[in-house]
Amino acid sequence: MAGSVPSGNVLRLYHLYRLVIGLLLVLLISSNLDERLLQVAYPDLFRHGSWLYLILNILVAVLVHHPKPLQLFSLALVDVILLSGLLYTAGGPSSGIGNLIIVSVAVANILLRGRIGLLIAAVAASGLVYMTFYLGLNRPAAATQYVHAGALGSLCFAAALLVQSLTRRLQRSESLAERRAAEVADLQALNAQILERMRTGILVLDPQQQVLLANQSAFTLLGNPALVGQPLAGHCPALVERLKHWQQNPTLRPQDLHTLPHGPLVQPNFVPLTRGGKQSILVFLEDVSQIAQQAQQLKLASLGRLTAGIAHEIRNPLGAISHAAQLLQESDDLDGPDRRLAQIIQDQSRRMNLVIENVLQLSRRRQAQPQLLDLKYWLHRFASEYRASAAPNQILHLEIQSGSLKTRMDSNQLIQVLNNLVQNGLRYSAQCHPQGQVWLKLFRDPESDLPVLEVRDDGPGVPAAQIEHIFEPFFTTESKGTGLGLYLSRELCESNQARLDYRGDEGKGGCFRITFAHPRKLS
Predict the structure, then answer these.
(1) CA nearest to 378, candidates 400, 348, 350, 349
(2) Which positions ≥6 away from 220 have C-beta within 8 Å?
(3) Residue 192 — very low, low, confident or very high, per pLDDT cuts 50/70/90?
(4) Is 96 left (phi over 0), alpha (psi -120 to 50) or beta?
(5) Where would I find the beta strands (DSSP E) of 216-370?
């Protein structure tokens, strides 16, 4: 036999139905209307049975809340037997109690499906026929109710079959709805994860330009994790201005902007959005600097492969030119201007060779091999080794915050980055002072809780117009520079999940900041 544990709502409805029937029967006998409305065969038994039915159902409603299938079967069986007994005492099927038995069978088949539900219907039908037959033996007038009893018994089976069929359909519909709801919930969760992991910043604005939704990239680009529920104008007026221009003429491409003073260049895009009859605005924020950097990497990779192919052909004549210039410079027959020309040939040959070396380094740069570094100890050792080889007019200062400062980074690549930054700082500092000075300051950032190393100098600083370009390859303001040093330094930092930025002010010295990765973050 198959059965099922009922849901709480159906069980409570079943309890309520039996209690109402019990109360109506007790009110009927208490007001002496039973003898007027019904042809009661056995009045005393009918009254005692009505009270028993009410009291038993009260106890069941109070005590039984989560019945097992066997307990529920027993409850339905007892209910049908008691109603059959009341039908007998009330005078047979003509009393109308047979209709109550049909309702009980129908409700029981909602709770007990399959053959066990049909068993309840069979017991009810048998009770109707048997009680009518037994009543007809003692009261000849009841012998004419066999057809009525048979019809009620048939209706019990019909009700059971119909309710089970409807219940199965409802159950299938409910299961399908639950699966669909689970799929929708999974898709919603997946969409939320995709939205959060997208590198493109996404904002949803209402007509009053209040932020309804924002992903993590938008928080990062706008520098505020508490955007949702606040007006956008209070956080990024420049973006609101681009939005107004777009609303006036949607065909125009919005201009790029800096959402943060030292942040990347951002390209905004706007799309009208209709949700539930309400107009909203979908804002996409693209980090243009990342796109430009990827394009530069592709260009340099191609350039590196090209240079690797022709480096041998260039170096041979270049070496010959440099060697010839050196021999020519050593000649005693040259006068001053000619020696100067020979020196220029050698200098430019060395510069060309340096460009080739740097580009080759880009093309065959090895994969970073991060290791756990104690930055305090490592930086002390780096400063000691650098001071030992530095010129007398070059001074390297060191400031280290107390506490544990660790990260994961390739030690050799970090040496290459710091050598480049310190040499640049000393060179520019010496342009303004008799001696070049650089300060290395190691501390923990209070906001991100990540280790930070600042390389400061007291030189002229980078002009504001050039700050956006200093990390571009081949950009240089020095006549002898290659323009690849800072680009290589940033690339090496990013390959170790660190970030190199410029934070200096023009006229107040330069400051390059390396923000290291968390020590538990793998490369």
Answers:
(1) 400
(2) 201
(3) confident
(4) left
(5) 257-258, 265-275, 278-287
Q: 378 - beta bridge partners?
A: none
d(CA 78, CA 53): 10
Q: For residue range 17-40, what is the model confidence (pLDDT) as tens digits? A: 888 888 888 888 888 776 666 767
* pTM of the predicted protein model: 0.45
Is residue 292 predicted with pLDDT exceeding 70? no
AA letter at 188: Q
Which residue reads 């080794």 in tokens?
385
Find, among 503, 428, 420, the residue nearest to 467 by Cα: 503
Going by pLDDT thresholds of 50, 70 and 90, the confidence category of residue 99 is confident
Best-predicted range by mean pLDDT (136-140, 157-161, 308-312, 377-381): 377-381
**Which helix (H) or strand (E) segment is 330 a member of?**
helix 288-330
Q: Is the dihedral of CA 119, 121, 125, 131 positive or negative?
A: positive
Query: pLDDT, tens digit, for every residue of 251-261?
Result: 888 888 877 77
Asked if residue 349 lies in contact with residue 325, where contact means CB atoms within 8 angstroms, the answer is: yes
Task: Express the helix, strand and coil content of the chain in percent, nearest 5 each.
Answer: 60, 15, 25
Distances in Å between the Cα of 28 and the Cα atoms of 22, 38, 71, 74, 90 are: 10, 10, 30, 27, 12
| DSSP assignment string, 33-81 | -HHHHS--S-HHHHHHHHHHHHHHHHHHHHH-SS--HHHHHHHHHHHHH
Beta bridge partners of 279: 274
Q: Which two tokens stand for residue 184?
A: 């929708």
Note whether 431 and 507 are within 8 A (CB).
no
pLDDT of 523 higher than 50: no
The answer to whether residues 425 and 459 touch, using CB atoms and an 8 Å cutoff, is yes
Task: Provide the 3-class DSSP secondary structure of residue 192.
Answer: helix
What would the two tokens of residue 56 be?
A: 């038993």
Looking up tokens 């001071």 gives: 387
Q: In the structure, what pLDDT confidence band is assigned to residue 49 with cuts at 50, 70 and 90?
A: confident
Report the length, in residues, of the chain. 523
Rounded distance between C-alpha atoms, residue 150 and residue 132, angstroms: 10
Q: Check: CB of residue 507 under 8 Å from CB of residue 461.
A: yes
Q: Helix axis angle, 485-495 relative to 411-432, nearest 10°?
A: 150
CA distance 359 to 458: 30
Measured over the CA atoms of residue 81, residue 87, residue 90 and residue 95, the dihedral's sign is positive
**Which residues does residue 456 pair with via DSSP β-bridges, in sequence order?**
439, 511
Where are the extended beta strands (E) located within 144-290? 201-205, 211-214, 257-258, 265-275, 278-287
Q: Match 């069929």 to its residue by tokens.
A: 165
Tokens of 313: 């052909």
